[in-house]
Amino acid sequence: MQNSILNNLNLFNKKDDFYFQIKKLINFTPNSIDYYKRAFTHRSLNEKDINGIAVNYERLEFLGDSILSTIISTYLFNQIPEASEGYLTKMRSKIVSRKHLNELGQELNLTNYLTSNSNIDNFGENIDGNLFESLIGAIFLDKGYKYAKNFIFDRVITPHVDIEKLDGKILSYKTLIIEWCQKKKLKYSYETYEDSGNDSIKQFTSSLNISNFQSVRARSTSKKKAEEKVSQRAFYINQKQIDK
Fold first, then answer.
1. pTM score, two decimals?
2. Which of 61, 64, 91, 126 is the most interior residue, by most CB within 10 Å?
3. What is the pLDDT of residue 2?
4. Domains annotated on the chain, with CATH
């Protein structure tokens, strides 16, 4: 009986801790902590609700992505009234890029709130951004659009969005290189292959060949990263030509 009481007290304390941690994280009082529990539940737990529907952060991530995109789009629409649809889309992409969302999630240490049966190394490289979006989804369902908007302004727009700086920010070096080659009618090719050698972590090497220009190589932990890295290297080597 005594052990049972102690276990219930420990469980209560853990729930209580999570509530106050979330309250501190979002900087307001949540109505229902259940939304936030779901926002930080990994699919590896295989939890289901009474209707047999999976309980994890993925559906909230989908919702949060839409809410974030809507609020950022509205902000840019009002902030840059002379901008075309294409320009607004490009600027929004820079703000909600996977890299930037991952950085935002890392700033808030969101993986510390995650419950999972999987090792953190197996979460995937975008877990921080995914959790950031799921948190926005939870805030929206719990408190409504106004609170979600205030959270996004506090955590994204006010500290990180500078229209002039964003205008010159390169979102993808690979896209930039390809567009430049197509514009100048230059032949180009990426050759990417696994090159782990004795490394414990899988590695890929990518080489970029552009007609009449120096061949460039780079190495990283995924094919996509290696090609982006080699594109960035090629950009800085040939920047004077690209800027013409």
1. 0.70
2. 64
3. 36
4. 2-167 (1.10.1520.10), 173-242 (3.30.160.20)
